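Run log // design_07
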């Protein structure tokens, strides 16, 4: 176990380093830049722009800028926002809560509904329900997240007035019920793709387990079908889903970016898009690195849980 953790740690550090290089280069080589906002100020002279560029460190060669940023990041100083001069870690900390709440709620919805659809589809394979679930999954995977979010807002907020159109809560009403109502629509929209993927993988995994010898042996011994289903079939079919759950973290993060924008949810996704619009490079890099750390950590946890759930797996 120790060797496995050390090996994964070294691989993760190398991946984070590569992500930082690519992200930093793409941001600083893109057209425009942080100085573009200052050029719109009336009366701004080239000398003043040069002074601002020097104060922000933008007049130095790109490798030097990267090294200074990387060196400070290693000691916990991720820089300051160009927009309001706040520390990047403080800016991320102020927005990470809503994003995690959205991701957790959407994951719960996806696991519950995806498991139910997948199990029922495997039990009643080639039935009307199975065909409808398959078609529904294909449609869900094909629908753009932003379009589905707009449809949800139009139907349930504009026409039916059942759910709020966006934001974290109603101004002047900070109750838990009000917050929960605001969380329903973005959570369902973010969970849509995950439900489709989870249900299809679980159905395929269940059909594979059903054909195993120990299932046929249990039936031959007269074990009740309910016991076979819950103790043997579902339990073993869920093992590969641990890995799938870990791999779904990048999908949730990318989906949260779109979902938060559509529903004006004050999370990291919306902060990321706003920071790109303002050319706030320190915040963009901070979110990029934080997201990469979450993805690598999620995959590591999935591997550890898989090994703990299946004694046949040896990490070393």
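design_07 sequence
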């Amino acid at each position: 176990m120790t060797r496995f953790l050390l090996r994964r740690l070294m691989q993760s550090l190398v991946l984070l380093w590569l992500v930082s290089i690519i992200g930093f280069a793409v941001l600083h080589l893109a057209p425009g830049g942080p100085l573009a906002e200052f050029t719109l100020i009336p009366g701004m002279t080239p000398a003043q722009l040069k002074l601002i560029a020097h104060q922000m460190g933008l007049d130095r060669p790109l490798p030097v800028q990267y090294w200074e940023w990387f060196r400070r990041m290693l000691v916990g100083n991720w820089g300051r926002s160009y927009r309001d001069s706040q520390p990047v870690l403080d800016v991320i900390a102020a927005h990470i809560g809503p994003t995690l709440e959205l991701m957790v709620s959407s994951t719960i919805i996806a696991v519950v509904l995806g498991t139910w659809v997948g199990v029922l589809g495997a039990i009643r394979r080639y039935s009307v329900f199975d065909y409808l679930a398959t078609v529904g999954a294909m449609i869900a995977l094909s629908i753009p997240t932003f379009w589905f979010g707009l449809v949800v807002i139009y139907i349930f907020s504009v026409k039916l007035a059942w759910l709020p159109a966006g934001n974290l809560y109603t101004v002047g009403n900070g109750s838990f019920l009000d917050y929960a109502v605001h969380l329903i629509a973005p959570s369902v929209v973010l969970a849509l793709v995950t439900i489709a993927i989870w249900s299809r993988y679980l159905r395929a995994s269940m059909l594979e387990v059903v054909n195993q010898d120990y299932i046929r042996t249990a039936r031959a011994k007269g074990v009740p079908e309910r016991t076979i289903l819950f103790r043997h079939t579902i339990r073993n079919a869920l093992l590969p889903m641990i890995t799938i759950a870990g791999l779904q973290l990048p999908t949730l993060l990318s989906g949260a970016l779109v979902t938060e924008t559509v529903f004006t949810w004050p999370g990291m996704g919306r902060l990321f898009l706003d920071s790109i619009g303002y050319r706030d490079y320190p915040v963009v890099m901070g979110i990029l690195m934080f997201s990469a750390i979450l993805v690598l950590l999620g995959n590591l946890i999935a591997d550890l849980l898989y090994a703990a759930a299946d004694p046949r797996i040896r990490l070393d």
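The two ends are 6 Å apart (CA to CA).
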